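Q: For a teaching handout, I want to show students what a protein-ligand complex looks like in token form. Below are the inputs, and the small molecule is NDP. Please produce the holo structure.
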Amino acid sequence: MSSKILGKWVLITGATSGIGRACAELFAKNGASLILTGRRSDRLEAAQNVLQEKYGVKVKTYNFDVREFNEAVKMANDLQASEIIPDILINNAGLASGKDKIYEGLISDWEKMIDTNIKGLLYITRAILPMMVASNEGHIINIGSTAGHLVYPEGNVYNASKYAVKALNEAINLDLMGTNIRCGSIDPGACETEFSEVRFHGNKDKAGKVYEGYEPLKPQDIADAALYICSAPAHVNITTMIIYPTAQRSAYVWDKK
Ligand code: NDP
Ligand code: 8X3
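A: Here is the structure, written as tokens, with NDP included.
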């Protein structure tokens, strides 16, 4: 149990699955109240019921698409009306859609990734950060990727979107100079979630192969890192944490059996 987290409000985007859902579980276990977002309302409702019951914490849910700025503003206004200022924002919602050569890629895939991974993160940050700045307190964690540090074949637009997250993580930090608000990214390598199923448009066989022959990260590993970053003393600002599975040393170097 981390005493630094007890009683805090933690806003997690994309909390219906994978890394976001694991963060929700771990922060609730450590006594945080949660604000969870996602497009799948049934999963949001299930998470709300389970986590409230299991950990006795408050859980608010907002069912919307992060590509809609108005929805982010509506959530921020509703939180303000309820006198809730998020102490921690985990900008997690995101996806890869498709894995094709750039001259064959689908424009609809590109738009999804750019609008979600870059613009969605910006919209949520623009809606929520002013509240933190006004109270001169808060912590933002951006979920980037090792894909934002090294481009790999057919990663093209997903890589570009995560390079943008890296740039925005640095930019947010610079613009928060002089405040007490901290900002850091967690940049994972291969982590077994619904990520690959989404990337391969629902093809479970293709998705399963991504995680064969080695032990990938689990979403709980990333939640552990988020908890560690948020539990650091107020004068410690961890700005980037790159986390690979032990069997993966880069996008190109794998120990697969
Ligand atoms: P999942 O597919 O399991 O989870 C993605 C989450 O994002 C879901 O909760 C989904 O919710 C939400 N989401 C996606 N698009 C939108 C949208 N338009 N509006 C609102 N919510 C959205 O994948 P992960 O947990 O793996 O992915 C989480 C983050 O981690 C992503 O940013 C991803 O790029 C990053 N990442 C993942 C890695 C991996 O190997 N898995 C490695 C490095 C980074 P819903 O569908 O209900 O809206
Ligand atoms: C997810 C990791 O290697 O599939 O961001 O791009 S990778």
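A: Two things your students might notice: The chain has one domain: 9-243. Residues 9-243 form a domain with the Rossmann fold fold (CATH 3.40.50.720).
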